[in-house]
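User: Please predict the structure of the protein below. I'd like the answer in structure-token form so I can feed it into my own downstream comparison script.

Assistant: Understood. Taking the following sequence of 324 residues as input:
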Amino acid sequence: MKKSRRFQLILIGAVLLGAVGLYFDSSSPNQPHYQGRSLSAWLAILDNGEGGDVFLKHQPSPTPTKKQAAAAEAVRQLGTNSLPILIERIKHERVPLHLKILYAPPVAATFSKISPLRRWYQTKMMQPQGDVLAWRAALGIDALGENAAPLIPVLSNILAVQPRQAVSASGLTAVAKGKAAARALAGIGAPARPALKRAIASTNQFSSSLAIWALSRRFLDDPEMMSAVISSLESTNRSTQMMAASVLAQAKADPKTVVPLITNLMATAGAGIAERYIYALGEYGPMAKQAVPALLSVTGQDRKSALGALRKIDPEAAANAEAK
């Protein structure tokens, strides 16, 4: 048998094994069932697709569809019996055999050599299935709300871990694991606020940034948590500052306090980095008029972004600047 043919057979076997593994994951009799569907099946319906987003968007999660709302109610009906499964998927410490095979370097290398399958593998399989399961678990915890409070200590520990590599041995990316833990804490609600506030105030920029991001999914209008985010603008971590600026701008939170802080961060940031703060000021619109002089003074590669923000804040000032 030719070597290339052998590789293709191995590849097909790996895909089939992965599909079988995922099928048994969703139909396992060990899972709690409601109305004829397993927990995994309800979580798949609940999935809003955000788990595969490498970039952290700063807008609230999309409004659930009727099917997703029904799935959330189903998870609530399943109740706390689901907690061990949900937290195990976020911890993701035990790796099923089919995932090990799907993420094995020879399998990935073979996919890259077969052009008809390359795009499918890159768009569908390069996002580890562990990422998907962890995100769905976070949404399941969100549906349970305060009933999932017993998971707070474990979720806090997951969020506090400083990632040492982009992808763990299990195939679950570090960002995906942290995102799921932070999102789950935000979904639990009031009982998890102290844990989220500790994460925001921590020196671990990974956990602080993800905690701030998670709040943007659910609690943009919560004064207590927004106060914690405002305080993080004075963090020494640049990524924490940028995440806080983006989330606060999306909420248009306390412009009298926040706009001067973001303006100062913009003025002291280097070229390219300042663009994130410029964008945040633009999101405030006319409420950021006190930032106009600082935006007018921006030069170099960030000037185009500054003019764009000025159009939202003070169109006349922007027109005058463009005329010069």
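That's the full token string. Strands lie at 33-34, 37-38.
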